[in-house]
Amino acid sequence: MNEQQLFHPVHIGNVKIEGNLFLAPLAGYTDIPFRTLCIEEGANFTFTEMVSAEGLSREGEKTLELMHRAPNEKQYAIQLFMSNTDSLKQALEQLMPFKPEVIDINCGCPVPKVTKTGAGSAMMKTPSLITEVVRTITNEVDIPVSVKFRTGWDAQSENFLAFAQAALDGGASALTLHARTRSQGYAPFADWTKLTELKHYCTSHAYQVPVFGSGDLFAAEDAKRMLLQTGVDGVMFARGAIGNPFIFSQAKAHLEGRPMKEITKAMRVQAILRHLDIMIETYGEKTACTLMRKHTCSYLKGVPNTSTVKQAVVQAVKREHYTEALSPLVDL
User: Fold this and answer.
1) 107 is catalytic
2) Pairing state of beta strands 174-181 and 211-214?
3) Catalytic residue chosen out of the listed positions 107, 109, 202, 289
4) How confident is the model at residue 1 (pLDDT cuts 50, 70, 90)?
5) Ordered structural domains, the chain, with CATH
């Protein structure tokens, strides 16, 4: 792939997405306010937080809330997790009114409370289950299905190619690989050679499905390296986007050979307040101010002389507390 073609549209089934820079699904982070901000900064496609198929089938109010579309979200995916297909058809009945462009299946979450039920990355232990899950969805609804998974449960059972094949057997329209095993969690380094292997496997077996890469994408330069080194069709920013929605506009510029905008302290503060305002609109002031604390610390990570600001933010319960805390950094 030459550098001129690094940023390009992709198709997931019959859905055309204008670019290949995605925001990954992240529990506790990729809610409507954060997705809104990332889209404003250039994210081409976004995913909800993971949604329990079982919770959906029971019509749980909090579960249903996770599926709402952001006002500026022209295209999005709802990510489901489950440990079997028992409640899947009922879950799809609840999901369909939200009309997502894509349904994504989580087979990568390493968190014990998810894996101990047989969901998340525990699904990699039984590849036949992902075939059944994808087939059930594709038989029931006319929405393309993507599958996000890891390289395996642990170093002794790296079965990502067999798992990919099982997903494709069910009719998956896209694959996303987080290039670590479940036992690695989020460290040490992701093994991007596995992305190359997966892309080669799909191409050599004549599968016309896009392969997306995830893992260790913390800067715009990382996106370019991953695309050039592995040949994947697109990248999925996860932790690299937390406190840094600018990563999307920077990555696009970098992939297109344009200079990247420098992110100033003032821009960070502006983004914090913009993020907070959408949070307040979505959740109300008190809840928003509590939820925004972790995001604010991420926005200020690496910015010198901000420890007192972070301490003040951890106590903030009103918007004005945020403006007071942030005022030493920039004129508000």
Assistant:
1) no
2) parallel
3) 109
4) low
5) 3-255 (3.20.20.70), 265-326 (1.10.1200)
